[in-house]
Amino acid sequence: MQVIFYIILNAIFLCQSFIQILRSASKGDIPAQLVTEMLMLSIPNMSILMIPLTVYLGILVAHARLGADSEFVVMKSLGVTPFSILKGAFILGVFTAVVALFNSLYLVPKAQAKQETLLQDARENSSYFAINSGQIIRFGNNRLIAYIDDVNDEKSNKVSSKKDLRKMENVYLFMPQTSRQKRPTTIGYAEKGYVTQDEDNIMWLVLEDGTFYIGPNEKNKYTKMDYDEYRTQLADNSQDQNEIKINAVPTSELLTMSGPVATAELQWRLCVALAIPILTLIVVPLANVRPRQGKFAKFLPALMIYGSFFLLMVSLKHLISKGIFPAFPGLYILIFAYFVLFAVPLNMTETKWYKKYQLQKIRKQSDKSKEIKN
Q1: I need a surface site. Which of 20, 30, 108, 368 has the fewest CB within 10 A?
Q2: Quick one: pLDDT band at residue 159, thresholds 50, 70, 90?
Q3: H helices within the chain, ranges in order?
Q4: 190 beta partners
Q5: Pairwise CA distance, residues 155 & 367, whole Å
């Protein structure tokens, strides 16, 4: 049941991720050649939430079906105790937690680092640019937007670098105003152009025989500038190219790092796995329904508990990374709180102590009712 839920949910969210990657590829943020590989590398990251959800839903559906069909009644008559049922589900939760821990500690940072490497190579490799006739292309994080009227296979005569693409003709340009560079809006035209890469793997857009119109200025006029050759660097040097996201840092390096961001990421990787046994202890009693209640009687409260847990985890992780919430107890306090507030009370109903307490309570109420009648 858990495997079936994992396949179904992964397929649904994989389609959503596929649409997002295709949208990025259409904008030019991701090369079209990397769509499939980027999609496959997103599976471990999706599995962070899919693995706990599938084991939670699997136990909820399976136990609810057994309860609605009176199978639990038969099992209890054969000597199967509620503790044995809880123990079996807990063992499954622990095994799933080990798989989730391997995924979050090893597979996710490895996949994220691979994605960063692919995107970095794409930024440094001009062959990833798919330039076609009649296409609008965004270069250098939208610093320059170009419409290319015609592309042919003839190479430019002025290419002196290692790599180049097909020659472009009739290139129309738009460079929006940026506050960082304090450059006015520029529009222009070039008869020829090509993208090239020099010996230092820096990518350049080279335009030949064109005109720029810069402005408007304070007098609402444009400045015209003709040129024989114009070069602009396409790589964005505003960020360190060696810098990678925190979720791509290997866990071994993350353990040596300090700071709220690293602490929040490390606790997140651990707690998404540690939460599975606790959620298992919560969902087993919630899934125990009576035959007349129906198997979907407790689905809503069970899903609300699961949803609130992970929403609070995401929010708490954000607060820890910002330094607003203390790193200790950090995310661990959420696991402890759900264990005390939900797991323990829900499982107390099947203990001998609780049944004895309920029996004494019924007897006291019966004695009071008799006294009132007398």
Answers
A1: 368
A2: very low
A3: 2-27, 35-41, 43-68, 71-77, 82-102, 108-124, 251-254, 260-287, 299-321, 332-338, 344-348, 352-373
A4: 171, 210
A5: 100
